[in-house]
Specification:
Blueprint (H helix, E strand, L loop, with lengths): L4 H10 L3 H9 L9 H14 L2 H14 L4 H14 L2 H14 L4 H13 L2 H10 L18 H21 L1 H4 L13 H5 L17 H16 L3 H12 L5 H13 L18 H6 L1 H4 L3 E14 L2 E8 L9 E7 L11 E10 L2 E10 L6
Parallel strand pairs: 3-5
Antiparallel strand pairs: 1-2, 1-4, 2-3, 4-5
């Protein structure tokens, strides 16, 4: 029986025949153009072959299809590690452990960064190939731990990592000064949940440990200038059964967040949430800033304001991920016949999302 190209590529990668896997996969790119597994597998093959630029591009394509996958996050973390950007690598390994608390590669990589993570050692590990022990493997059927163990393990891993990241010198260089008023006090920790739930509607019912962990994640992301990720956790708090003092501190954290620019997203792909992620649970992404590309339609002016619809993902005239209403307070310079990137803030009303536009980018028209 003939095997699918993707299955054959998996076999070749396990046999360390990376170049053969790349040639095979490049030959069927058109067939698998919307396949997460395809781009992940090709990214892993390129990573192992030393073609880090191609690996980055394929992982990025995979991320547009599915953001939360431990093997994809391991691959992207490895690329940051290879660059010597240990702070970004640590963030990705934290995300891996959020998904899979007992992930051995993520734990091993974090221990490596903690004990040997200087650039000279990383270069030597790249040169000898030892760095590959942190690379992801091609997808296999997963076996899952019991739910309770997963929750307990996730809480412990998150606490350990937050402490590790807070005190690590390399991380400190890229952190905001600690805002003392945002730290949960002993009183806050003894009253994490709302006592009477009869008077409100709560989208998320969280335990004491979940509330504390969610808040600390929000504060960690805020300290590390990952304000979009912080907003997601803050939104989870604000729409939960967390107590009013905890919610008040979460709201205060929001007040310190700064408006981004296009440059703010450069090299920080993890902060630019995809349309599919946002539409899956809009309430978590309310207030987040995104840069979405596509083409505009239904453009119109309303007094001094400008309104249009953005066909998200349609910049190459191939597929439309979704249609989002965009509102600008004044008329931007947009040529409607060309692809566009829009920086805007997500607004949610009656479960529907729109963008409050801030900036527009269009590449220069070729002569």
């Amino acid at each position: 029986m003939n095997r699918a190209a993707i299955d054959e590529a998996h076999s070749l990668i396990r046999k360390k025949k990376f170049s053969e896997a790349i040639v095979l996969l490049e030959g069927v790119r058109e067939i698998y153009k919307n396949s997460f597994d395809y781009y992940l597998t090709l990214g892993i093959a390129c990573l192992n072959s030393g073609d880090y630029g191609s690996s980055y591009r394929n992982f990025d394509e995979a991320r547009h299809i599915k953001m939360q996958d431990e093997n994809l996050l391991l691959g992207q973390a490895a690329l940051y590690l290879i660059r010597g950007d240990t702070v970004s690598a640590i963030r990705y390994y934290l995300d891996v452990l959020d998904l899979e608390p007992e992930n051995k590669k993520a734990k091993s990589a974090l221990e490596f960064v903690r004990s040997k993570g200087d650039y000279e050692t990383i270069v030597r590990w790249i040169d000898t190939g030892k760095i590959r022990e942190f690379f992801p493997e091609v997808p296999r059927k997963k076996s899952f731990l019991p739910f309770v163990l997963s929750v307990v393990g996730g809480g412990v891993a998150a606490c350990l990592l937050l402490a590790f990241l807070h005190f690590r010198d390399a991380g400190q260089k890229n952190q905001r000064p600690v805002v003392e008023s945002l730290v949960l006090t002993a009183d806050d920790r003894s009253n994490l949940q709302e006592k009477d739930l009869s008077g409100g509607v709560y989208r998320y019912i969280l335990s004491d440990s979940q509330i504390e962990e969610t808040y600390e994640k929000a504060r960690f992301y805020f300290q590390n200038y990952r304000e979009n990720s912080s907003r997601v956790e803050i939104n989870r708090i604000l729409n939960s059964n967390a107590s009013e003092p905890v919610k008040a501190k979460a709201q205060m954290m929001l007040s310190y967040c700064e408006e981004p620019s296009f440059d703010s997203f450069s090299g920080r792909e993890e902060e630019n949430f995809s349309y599919s992620a946002v539409i899956s649970e809009p309430v978590l992404y309310s207030g987040c800033w995104v840069v979405w590309s596509g083409r505009i339609t239904n453009a119109r002016t309303d007094g001094e304001a400008f309104k249009c619809d953005l066909l998200v993902g349609y910049e190459n005239l191939e597929r439309v991920d979704g249609i989002v209403a965009v509102n600008f307070p004044s008329v931007p310079k947009i040529e409607g016949d060309r692809a566009v990137k829009i920086l805007g803030q997500i607004k949610v009303e009656d479960g529907k999302i729109s963008l409050s536009g801030r900036s527009v980018y269009q590449p220069l028209r070729k002569n």
